[in-house]
Design a protein that fits this description.
Length: 499
């Protein structure tokens, strides 16, 4: 066997991962994806192993609910054939490997920088010199947006090539923040420091990332969890989904100048995030997820309060969505705007609601279930038009679905477990991987430990890593005035990308 099969939230000895010659490694992993649309790459990265670079590729098999892992070792001086030439969904993974280690590829279609990380191999490559794609024509013009934006949006640059008002090409350049999150996981030695770091990866996905970290650390440390911990994490993820989807619907309404929808959705988001404050003292749910135990047991009083919040929320949410879907002026902006086809989504490896908008069923809650999701028999909502309206509809239906899941959870509260706040230590020479379904889509954390159980590498992948290219392709042939609503309908993360 040329690969190792494991489950989500499982750790294994690094030595158990088959190490292949690079050509075999390439053929195997690209064939996995080319032969089966239910498989996709969840992470592909490298790290220094002595004087060489060890590459690890993890392919999720969504039909069989497992992950296929293999590895290869190459030198920095190698010039490799690229995975991307055979399957485009690997392109950004390989661009990052090139940026980090200087490995060259003979046939990569677009070998450009990803993040301009401080530890990049070629320090001469600078953000001001980013190699934008250029089209020379007297009929075309370029429009630059950012990196400094109005309001509080994070830094990112959008370079449009337009023919009049029509977008022919959009290139998105990120990498301004230089946060060094993955490196901080190695230098911060206390578990609490690392947990706080995980919940700070992307502020709107504190639960999604903190849960991925906690599950990974627990699997590396070999501990099991009580039901009340699984209950709280599952509940918190669905509350986070409701809050952010509702806030996004408000922002989408703002971008089409529908002030009533903007105001009502904005108002509805507030009591949802305020409930997190009542539960754990923070509106974004920071401090709620901790490795191995539940710091804020969910009580009968909290359950009654959450039911009260949802009873007030649900009818107003349904009513304003009904108004939104009947409004001709909103439908004219939503329908057939920012459209992506199924084959495009599949080819670039899109995940989350950005995949589900055109029948690509990427949802970790059903394909690699964790927490209490197996009890829900979760079925993701799929749309078939791939436009802004499909993304709006998925948000609406997922909020309603999350409310149903929460009511099911609240009907049977678990007994609080006994807190265990030991400083847990990972096993030596181990590899672990953890997938969760954040509100944007698939979050992946992976780690490798050394002979002493210390981290050799900690690898984070936010769903935005997959999906920024989907936004760039979706706006082609649209009017540039439709970019704001198209952008917000994806609502991708800058900070989740700029690690």
């Amino acid at each position: 066997m040329s690969y190792l099969t494991i489950n989500n939230h499982q750790s294994v000895p690094v030595a158990s991962i088959p190490e292949l010659k690079y050509d075999h490694f390439l053929d195997q992993n690209t064939t996995f994806l080319n032969d089966n649309s239910a498989r996709h790459c969840v992470t592909y990265f490298g790290y220094m192993a002595g004087q060489e670079i060890k590459l690890i590729c993890c392919i999720a098999d969504d039909e069989n609910h497992n992950i296929l892992i293999s590895s290869s070792t190459v030198t920095k001086e190698a010039c490799l054939n690229s995975f991307s030439a055979k399957n485009l969904s690997f392109e950004k993974f390989e661009r990052e490997i090139h940026e980090n280690f200087g490995i060259a590829y003979s046939d990569h279609p677009w070998l450009k920088p990803v993040r301009y990380s401080e530890n990049r191999a070629d320090k001469s490559k600078l953000i001001p010199d980013y190699p934008f794609f250029n089209i020379t024509s007297e009929e075309l013009h370029e429009v630059g947006v950012g990196p400094v934006h109005a309001g509080i949006i994070e830094p990112g640059h959008f370079r449009f090539v337009c023919n009049g008002e029509q977008i022919l090409h959009l290139e998105i350049q990120l990498g301004y923040q230089h946060r060094g999150v993955e490196q901080l996981f190695l230098t911060r030695k206390k578990l609490l420091q690392r947990t706080i770091l995980a919940e700070s990866i992307a502020g709107d996905s504190a639960i999604g990332h903190a849960t991925a970290f906690a599950c990974l650390w627990e699997s590396l440390s070999g501990i099991s969890l009580s039901r009340d911990v699984l209950f709280s994490r599952t509940l918190a993820q669905e509350i986070e989904r409701i809050a952010i989807h509702t806030g996004d619907l408000s922002a989408i309404c703002t971008d089409i100048a529908y002030q009533l929808g903007s105001s009502v959705f904005g108002r509805l988001r507030t009591p949802i995030i305020n409930f997190f404050q009542e539960w754990c003292g923070n509106r974004l749910a920071k401090s709620l997820i901790r490795v191995g135990f539940n710091p804020y047991p969910f009580t009968k009083e909290l359950a009654d309060r959450l039911n009260e919040v949802l009873d007030a929320f649900e009818p107003d949410f349904i009513e304003i969505n009904s108004e939104l879907s009947r409004l001709p002026s909103s439908l004219s902006r939503f329908e057939r705007t920012g459209t992506m086809k199924y084959d495009q989504l599949l080819s670039i490896g899109t995940v989350g609601l950005s995949a589900r908008m055109n029948a690509l069923p990427r949802d970790i809650r059903s394909s690699h279930p964790y927490g209490l999701y197996p009890e829900f028999n979760h079925e993701p909502f799929l749309k078939h038009h791939g436009d802004v309206y499909s993304r709006v509809q998925i948000r609406r239906e997922e909020v309603k679905q999350s409310i149903a899941y929460i009511r099911q959870l609240l009907a049977s509260l678990p007994e609080p477990g006994i807190p265990d706040q030991r400083e847990l230590h990972p096993k030596n020479n181990s590899f672990g991987i953890s997938l969760t379904e954040g509100w944007r889509g698939e979050i992946c954390h992976a780690a490798v430990t050394d002979n002493n159980g210390e981290l050799l590498i900690y690898k984070v992948k936010d769903p935005s890593f997959h999906n920024w290219l989907a936004l760039a392709l979706a706006v082609r042939n649209n009017e540039i005035s439709d970019f704001p609503v198209c952008n917000k309908s994806f609502d991708l993360s800058y900070c989740g990308h700029d690690l």
